[in-house]
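Weekly structure sync, notes
Attendees: PL (lead), two postdocs, one rotation student
Agenda item 3: pending single-chain targets
PL asked that the sequence for the first pending target be pasted directly into the notes so everyone works from the same version. It is reproduced below exactly as submitted, 184 residues in total.
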Amino acid sequence: MNRTEALDLLHQYVQSRNMINHCLASEAVMRALAGKLGRDKDLWGLTGLLHDLDVELVAGDMTIHGKETARILAEKGCDEAMIDAIQMHNESSSGKKRSTEFQHTLAAGETITGLIVATTLVYPDKKLASVKPRSVVKRMKEKKFAASVRRENILECEKIGIPIHEFAALCVSAMQEISDDIGL
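Predicted structure, written out during the meeting:
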């Protein structure tokens, strides 16, 4: 599947502009992480782009979120590693613990996008260009700030050998590159 096909598929299943922006941000982050780790940028980017494909289809039910995406992508003949990472980004649906670099990277990468967006929105100009990675790391410690963001998922960056400060810097930079596309 190429990016154009993936975007068409995303727009077929996801209507919420915020969710589409989250998927675009996750794509940018995953591409940057693939570059850092010497992995396939296209595969990892598409995985970030499509990881929440079924979120509206399953009405946000986290007990099954990811399973429908896996079914849809398997029918399309997508890469098994992509499907596995997508299923495993939501451990409550898979019933297993993440164990591979790809799984940890997607879980950490897609989760930090929410914290970065929340951090952006408290800045006076609400622009990603103003966000400093140290502010994102500082917000990680504030449990009430963006309370739904699972900090333990973000900290899986350390399981792939990237310290949190470096991880935040890489992810903020990746999102800043697409700020116009996601309206920040």
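Discussion points:
- The mean pLDDT is 96.
- The CA atoms of residues 119 and 138 lie 10 Å apart.
Action: rotation student to compare against the earlier draft before next sync.
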